[in-house]
């Protein structure tokens, strides 16, 4: 059941594993050093991993966001997917890694996706709007953690140094019946909804 997404503040958890990974201002370094990953790397599929190795579950990300409202929080799913499925509370922006076409793949039986060629420019525009740099804290999420990892890899190549992947995403991983009930933001009972805040929508 959707919860009120308009009123929750944000909070950060502890971590000592960042150190040399984060570049930039003293404020960014201090904030990053306070974040602690709660993800077991040995259990993390390759599709969800990134060169920086910065991972959080939705619960840990939510705690971090409760403590620190300055953390940027971006969903990289297709905007139409988000419209019908819902999204975490207090997103800063939707910036899709890929968007759906009207062509169905014979292999997957699903609509084919095309890359958002303006991905990096979209993120850089968001940084400028929020007065942030590429070294500031950035959380990325998707359905289950793979697309957000893909986006993170592209961002890291473009010079972003503080990108954290929410490895369970919004809907979570599939159970033995192929239903996404195992984990994820929504299954954890965290705040979510359907209505987008002002400025959150992707304009393409």
Verbal overview:
It is a single chain. The protein is an alpha/beta fold and 204 residues long. It is 24% helix and 16% strand. Strands 1-8-7-2-4 form a five-stranded parallel beta sheet. Helix 5 links the parallel strand 7 (138-141) and strand 8 (163-166). The longest helix has 12 residues, at 119-130. The model is unreliable at 1-31 (pLDDT under 50).
SSE blueprint:
Blueprint: H1 26-33, E1 55-56, H2 58-67, E2 72-75, H3 79-85, E3 87-88, E4 93-94, E5 98-104, E6 111-115, H4 119-130, E7 138-141, H5 146-157, E8 163-166, E9 192-193
Parallel strand pairs: 1-8, 2-4, 2-7, 7-8
Antiparallel strand pairs: 3-9, 5-6
Q: Say what the CATH topology is.
A: Oxidized Rhodanese, domain 1
* Span of the ends, CA to CA: 29 Å
Percent helix: 10-25%
Q: Which CATH architecture is right?
A: 3-Layer(aba) Sandwich
- By CATH, the superfamily comes out as Rhodanese-like domain
Return the average pLDDT rounded to an integer.
84
Number of helices, counting only DSSP H or I runs of 4 residues or more: 5
Structural class: alpha/beta
**Secondary structure tally: strands:** 9
Number of domains: 1
CATH class category: Alpha Beta
Order of helices and strands: HEHEHEEEEHEHEE
Strand order of the largest sheet: 1-8-7-2-4
